[in-house]
Design goal:
The structure holds two protein chains of two kinds. Chain A is mostly helical. Helices cover 70% and strands 0% of the residues of chain A. By secondary structure, chain B is an alpha/beta fold. Chain B has an eight-stranded mixed beta sheet with strand order 5-6-7-3-8-9-11-10, with helices on both faces. A three-stranded antiparallel beta sheet of chain B has the order 2-1-4. Classes of the chains: A mainly alpha, B alpha/beta.
Chain lengths: 311, 352
């Protein structure tokens, strides 16, 4: 038995958690898609953080209101004054994109964080305890699944009253079943592992088993789902805004910006593409944002999914 | 202090089978079906049987990792008191009086607080150490977990005790801040053993502790387990399907078939003179490392019957070459054979 142990030579090293993290990061950045995804998100993050510098708000107490010069309903194309052109009523598109980024992060992260917390708690209860608790939680989740999300979201937003806050609230209400399902299915697998049995045989309490064994082993798939869902959330919020359920004209929200341009998607007969910048710029921004989160989510899965990891 | 450490009476563990839209209860898988078993202090009892005969379930039910369907499990109790409770239970009119005593003495009916305190005394080592060690925990935290859960050691003493335990199982220092995947199978099993010993238990269920290991490592682990048993006066229930492992480690062998104990006796007697036809068949299947020996092999025909619907009478009769009419209709009881502590459940053990 001594030679078996001789293989392990003790060397002074960093904390193993840090070693694991460094290993994960190394794996993460081997994938070119990660770099693309991370760069996109980083780009948006910089936009969001430095928004006050990049586009100084004329009224600092209300920066999300886009400044505009005059009420001319005809949008103007990109120019020296308005680099990306203006919306109808002369709202500056560049300003809208920059402050809209901040807005997108606010919406996406708030919704996903709230969903994550609710999903973790409900999923842990359903998965770990099973039985009647499981039945009740999962049947309610099934009811949510049975109704098309967008239709349900529209109905709820109309009921609460239109506006961005309502959209966020409704997405929080509707989003939890996916998270609960994912976390529950993971816990169902982990619950029967021998190390859970061993912990129970030592008299470890349920709460401690959930916090110390089950969560660390099941939290990664939910993080993957969450990172992908930041983009999806923005997409749904934009769709609702486009349908006119979002904020008022002039608010720096990508969906609302596309919405104000509804009448200008197709230009006059002599030049159908005259207003291309109106829909294209906010639309492309939304697409890029969603793509960034999806790529990042994919990459995170490749690295953190325990099934794809080395043993 | 009595001689018997663990006393199992009429233990049943049925898994319900549900069917239909409303999950109606349609049948039971009878994993453990009326087991009586006494384990003495310091003894190593080998529990053998085919896959699916309920041996692992029995081991886990003793530790209440599975809830039993019915039956009593007494651990480290006064035998007079056990007899008194059993007497009260036997008569329907006095059975109610036994309730309070059972809540104190019977593992299957204890409340959380009592059970938690008892868990210090009973531990388990699982078959596959790559499943029984949390992949996201450091070795130090894995071994310290029972100590912390039981509030046995605090602060800096935890590290000291963990190192001591690692030393006991023959691992060097310097492993504290490592993850399980950095170790070989044998080392992982040593870590699992260290964890089981952390609270200084009296009784350890060994659930096929060597089945997932290389043969060379198996021997090391078996020797370690034997040494630990001597050093710490441990009592083992050694669950395995490997008869030679049992022969090497155990003082007594219990043979299970379809949820029932069919033979129970000292290792030497079982190997020299097995009485139950099933035990005979099991023993004849052990390979002999000598190609020139000619032995009579008893080949069992057919599969193990479905434990949802076991055969009537003796459960072994469809596969038994000695079966007679009585075997098909009457279930044999576990009878003493007159030899020292040897019992067998067969109608015809005297003749065959």
């Amino acid at each position: 038995m001594s030679n078996e142990n001789a293989q392990i030579i003790e060397k002074p090293s960093a904390h193993p958690l840090w070693k694991e993290f460094a290993f994960s990061m190394k794996r993460l950045f081997k994938n070119p898609l990660t770099i693309i995804g991370a760069s996109i998100i980083l780009f948006f993050l910089i936009l969001a953080i430095f928004a006050p510098l990049l586009a100084p708000p004329p009224r600092p107490f209300d920066p999300y209101l886009m400044p505009h010069k005059g009420w001319d309903m005809t949008p103007s194309p990109p120019s020296a004054d308005n680099w990306l052109g203006t919306l109808p009523s002369q709202y500056d598109i560049l300003y809208g994109i920059i402050w809209g980024t901040r807005n997108a992060f606010r919406i996406g992260l708030a919704v996903v964080a709230a969903n994550l917390i609710v999903g973790l708690i409900l999923g842990a209860l359903a998965g770990y305890f099973g039985g009647i608790v499981d039945e009740i939680i999962m049947r309610i989740a099934d009811i949510f699944y049975a109704i098309p999300t967008l239709v349900m979201a529209m109905a709820l937003v109309v009921a609460i009253g239109r506006g961005l806050t309502s959209i966020v609230l409704v997405l929080i209400i509707l989003g939890w079943p996916t998270y609960t399902r994912v976390i529950r299915s993971d816990i169902l697998v982990i619950r029967n592992m021998d190390y859970i049995m061993a912990a129970r045989a030592s008299g470890v309490s349920h709460l401690r088993i959930i916090m110390r064994h089950i969560m660390p082993n099941s939290v990664f798939s939910i993080i993957i789902v969450a990172s992908m869902n930041v983009g999806v959330t923005i997409l749904v919020a934009a769709a609702l805004s486009f349908l006119g359920l979002g904020s008022d004209t002039g608010y720096a929200d990508w969906g609302a910006m596309v919405s104000t341009c509804r009448d200008f998607i197709v230009g006059p007969p002599e030049n159908r593409l005259a207003y291309w910048y109106l829909v294209f710029i906010p639309g492309f921004t939304i697409a890029l944002f969603v793509l960034g989160w999806n790529l990042l989510g994919d990459a995170i899965r490749d690295v953190f999914d325990p099934r794809m990891r080395r043993r | 202090m009595s001689d018997t450490l663990l006393d199992i009476r009429d233990l049943y563990k049925y898994y319900p089978v549900t069917g239909g839209v409303f999950r109606k209860h349609v049948a039971d898988v009878k994993a453990v079906d009326g087991v009586n078993l006494q384990i003495k202090r310091g003894e190593c009892v080998g529990l053998v049987g085919e896959s699916g005969c309920g041996k692992t379930t029995l081991g886990k039910t003793i530790l209440r990792l599975h809830e039993s369907t019915s039956g009593r499990i007494y651990f480290d109790q006064n035998p007079d008191k056990i007899e008194e409770v059993e007497r009260l239970l036997a008569a329907p009119e006095t059975a109610g009086q036994a309730k309070a005593a059972l809540a104190e003495m019977d593992i299957t009916k204890m409340d959380g607080t009592r059970l938690r305190a008892l868990r210090r005394q009973m531990q388990i080592v699982f078959q596959d150490p790559s499943n029984s060690l949390d992949p996201r925990m450091l070795i130090r935290d894995i071994i310290a977990e029972p100590l912390e859960a039981q509030n046995l050691v605090k602060g800096a003493d935890v590290d000291k005790r963990v190192l001591e335990l690692l030393d006991i199982v023959g691992m060097g220092t310097g492993h504290l801040k490592r993850y399980p995947h950095e170790f070989s199978g044998g080392q992982r099993q040593r870590i699992a053993i260290a964890r089981a010993l952390a609270t200084n238990p009296k009784f350890v269920v060994m659930d096929e502790p060597t089945s997932a290991l290389d043969v060379s490592v198996q021997a090391q682990i078996l020797n370690l387990l034997k040494k630990l048993q001597r050093d710490f006066q441990l009592t083992y229930l050694f669950v395995t399907h490997h008869l030679l492992v049992v022969k090497y480690t155990s003082d007594r062998i219990v043979v299970m078939y379809l949820g029932k104990v069919v033979e129970n006796g000292p290792t030497k007697q079982i190997f020299e003179k097995p009485l139950h036809p099933y035990t005979k068949a099991l023993l004849s299947a052990i390979p002999v490392p000598d190609p020139t020996t000619k032995r009579e092999k008893i080949i069992l025909t057919g599969d193990v019957p479905n434990p949802v619907n076991p055969p009537k009478g003796c459960r072994f009769h469809p596969r038994c070459s000695y079966a007679q009419e009585i075997c098909r209709t009457q279930e044999p009881a576990l009878d003493p054979t007159g030899m020292d502590g040897h019992t067998v459940a067969c109608h015809r053990w005297k003749e065959i």
